[in-house]
Amino acid sequence: MLEIVTPESVGMDSMQLARVSEHLTKRYIEPRKISGSITLVARGGKACYLDVQGHRDLERGTVMAEDSIVRIYSMSKPITSLAMMTLLEKGLFSLDDPVHRFIPSWRNLGVWTAGSYPLFSTEPCKRAMTIRDLFMHTSGLTYDFLRASNVDYAYRKQQVGSPRPGYTLQDMVDQLAALPLEFSPGERWNYSLATDVLGHLVEAISGQSLPDYLRSVIFEPLGMMDTSFGIAPTDTARFASCYERNMNREMVLNDDGQDSQFTSPSFYSGGGGLLSTVGDYYRFCQMLLSGGTLEGTRIIGSRTLALMTRNHLPGGADLSATATGGFSESAYEGVGFGLGFAIKLDAVRNGYPASTGSFFWGGLASTLFWVDPVEELVVIFMTQLMPSSTFNFRGQLENIIYGALR
pLDDT digits over 86-116, tens only? Predict the structure, then answer.
């Protein structure tokens, strides 16, 4: 369990931080908008606030606990991105390598111009998709749930990237080879399956399965013993239930059948397939804050990590100038994107007080984290409500927590 110091010992105000619990209780848990939550605040490498409340499973009456295992969905993306960059540090690829160097069937990908599945008209890409494009979501790929184009409709029809028995990363890559891109790589930003493709590249380049590589390079060295793609039978009692809102805005159990991916996984989604705990993810975030090391163990070089957490969007633009579609785990204004992380560029444009250079992301079930190097701050919020766009937990917590800095 985490050792918690007093907020005042790290320059924060305990009375202001207590408003986190009050806010979540009165606004979300008592009205049954979420079942339960875990909020962790750490500064200077010391956890100074931990709020655990509500239920892990309302129907069974089990309470949320510090060691509850949750679906972190797209908070898997920074982990997979970091794993891929450890291979860059071995000289095994470059950011501007074409993706077809490692996936030959992608050499002649086309860009959609007209038509609907299965009859498309395409034109050649203006340039080849690079590995940097995959990190940045500028690849031209998309997600099936975006419901914005004929291309994502084709993803839905073919269940591209949808976990099911026997389905693998290789199957996903083969399907994508036969479908058009939304746009020519580098032209726009679009949230997509790109990080799942990075997971496939981790396997292709390292010669290990993605679970094995993550375990040996990140999870075991960091002591993240509860983070994996599957739930062990001995841990099911700690697995928090996932909820959603129905048409009447009532919270109900999410029963889309996707939990099978956690009990017998064959599709290792580097973009959204991991389970974790607040304690495990804190160790990952503290390693990031410490420049790639934790307790004397180096996971990645400080300069490599600095490169990942800089804005890579063309011309230093923010997402509002480059993004297509309406879904993201971040607001667009005042936010850039690096190699696996969103980056705070301008607090005024963004409207929330985290420092310039803070980096962050979130997950489909409303989990979120951010790392603020200026204030040496790590914040992690865990709950299980889909989709993450239902409530503005990030903005609300940012306002309350930065009010506690002294």
Answer: 999 999 999 999 999 999 999 999 999 999 9
Dist CA 89 CA 55 (whole Å): 42
Of the candidates 383, 395, 318, 385, the one whose C-alpha atom is nearest the C-alpha of residue 354 is 395
Phi, psi for residue 149 in degrees, rounded to 5: -160, 170
Residue-wise pLDDT tens digits, 326-337: 667 778 999 999
Q: Which residue has the tokens 């997402």?
A: 319
Tell how strand 70-71 and strand 62-63 pair up. unpaired
Alpha helices in 93-242 (DSSP H): 131-136, 150-158, 169-177, 194-206, 210-214, 220-222
pTM of the entire structure? 0.97
Long-range Cβ contacts of 100-107 (<8 Å, 24+ apart): 100/128, 100/129, 102/201, 102/204, 102/205, 103/173, 103/177, 103/197, 103/200, 103/201, 103/204, 105/173, 105/174, 105/177, 106/173, 106/176, 106/177
